[in-house]
């Protein structure tokens, strides 16, 4: 049976028709009555509170991290840095460019440097303020034009600040535009977009016997979370159990943030042998979560007298910020969808992030 016939058959089945019907959500009653349990609802009273020490500079070398004063604060149990990571200090997704905890260089205001683990939030916050970081400030890059300029500082080394490129060539672009009765050309810029999910980022990790850990978190990709947590701990995948709690909104943002938060909580729990929770407040979520990337897109489109597209030429530049994160996948989607749903004989697309 051909794919088209299979789809047609499915579309005719009564049980698959939902348009025009009332659909009951199985979890609606629990949520309405407050019985639904999100990540923070699983945290036990004796769990350690984890807070992140973050960079105060956008681009700098780390010359030293002094945790002595933080450890003197009553209630502070430990301050973990990159040297405490038993596995690989790498949490990058598409590219291996993002340490979980930075000990060499920071790349944005808010880049994680250390984890303060304490018996309560008050002690944890005091511990964060007491950690001293010695920096050698470097030139920062704030805009797309600055990042692409020939004399821009190389944020991650290499020849330039481009993480990934895309390219599409289909047909003769000049011939396509020669057939066009109308040509529209303009440059469009899209801003950052904050996901602003109702539930901030959260993870709760419980050590389970010998060299095992359970992580409960708000996320979108539990298998990716397991992979990244195992990598940070230097463990096999079967030593990490991940439970995705009810997720109070995500919209793509927790695909990035899930592994970042869960790995920090898991590291604290395993190193200290105690349950540990890392829960962002709203300010922290808005300031330091991954955003929908801003972009500058130049479009040149041609259409004939009957309204058919004859050529599309697109140049895309995505600002992925300090690290690549999911930008390579996002850029790929922009590239693949550049001509929209139309069949166009001539298409040229160039992209970079």
Structure description:
The protein is α+β, with helices and mostly antiparallel strands and 353 residues long. It folds into 2 domains: 40-137 and 196-288, Aldehyde oxidase/xanthine dehydrogenase, a/b hammerhead (Aldehyde Oxidoreductase, domain 3, Alpha-Beta Complex), CATH 3.90.1170.50; 163-192 and 293-352, 2-Layer Sandwich (Aldehyde Oxidoreductase, domain 4), CATH 3.30.365.10. Helix content is 25%, strand content 27%. It contains 10 helices and 15 strands. The chain has helices at residues 3-12, 28-32, 68-71, 121-130, 144-148, 173-178, 222-233, 253-272, 282-288, 327-336; strands at 48-54, 60-66, 76-80, 105-106, 112-118, 132-137, 165-170, 182-190, 202-207, 213-217, 240-244, 276-279, 295-303, 309-318, 346-352. The strands form 3 sheets. It has a 7-stranded mixed sheet with strand order 3-5-1-12-9-10-11, with helices on both faces. A 5-stranded mixed sheet has the order 7-15-14-13-8. It has a 3-stranded antiparallel sheet with strand order 4-2-6. The chain is globular. The mean pLDDT is 94.
């Amino acid at each position: 049976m051909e794919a088209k016939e299979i789809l047609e058959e499915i579309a005719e089945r009564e049980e698959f028709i939902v348009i025009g019907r009332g659909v009951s959500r199985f979890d609606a009653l629990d949520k309405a009555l407050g019985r639904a349990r999100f990540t923070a609802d699983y945290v036990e009273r004796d769990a350690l509170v984890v807070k992140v020490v973050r960079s105060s500079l956008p681009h700098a070398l780390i010359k030293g991290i002094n945790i002595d004063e933080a450890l003197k604060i009553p209630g502070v149990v430990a301050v973990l840095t990159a040297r405490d990571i038993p596995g690989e200090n790498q949490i990058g997704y598409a590219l291996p460019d993002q340490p979980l905890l930075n000990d060499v260089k920071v790349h944005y205001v808010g880049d994680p440097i250390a984890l303060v683990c304490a018996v309560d939030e008050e002690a944890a916050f005091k511990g964060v303020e007491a950690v001293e970081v010695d920096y050698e400030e470097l030139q920062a890059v704030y805009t797309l034009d600055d990042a692409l300029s020939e004399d821009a500082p190389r944020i991650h080394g290499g020849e330039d600040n481009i993480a990934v490129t895309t390219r599409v060539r289909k047909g003769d672009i000049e011939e396509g535009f020669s057939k066009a009765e109308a040509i529209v050309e303009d440059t469009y810029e899209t801003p950052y977009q904050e996901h602003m999910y109702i539930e901030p980022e959260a993870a709760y990790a419980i050590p389970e016997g010998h060299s095992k850990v359970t992580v409960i978190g708000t996320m979108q990709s539990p298998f990716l979370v397991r992979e990244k947590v195992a990598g940070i701990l230097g463990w096999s995948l079967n030593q990490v159990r991940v439970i995705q709690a009810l997720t109070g909104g995500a919209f793509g943002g927790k695909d990035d943030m899930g592994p970042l938060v869960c790995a920090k909580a898991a590291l604290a729990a395993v190193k200290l042998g105690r349950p540990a929770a890392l829960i962002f407040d709203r300010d922290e979520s808005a300031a330091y979560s991954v955003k929908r990337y801003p972009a500058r897109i130049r479009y040149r489109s041609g259409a004939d007298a009957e309204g058919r597209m004859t050529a599309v030429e697109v140049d895309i530049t995505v600002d992925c910020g300090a690290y690549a994160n999911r930008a390579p996948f996002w850029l790929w989607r922009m590239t693949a969808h550049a001509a929209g749903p139309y069949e166009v004989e001539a298409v040229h697309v160039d992209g970079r992030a």
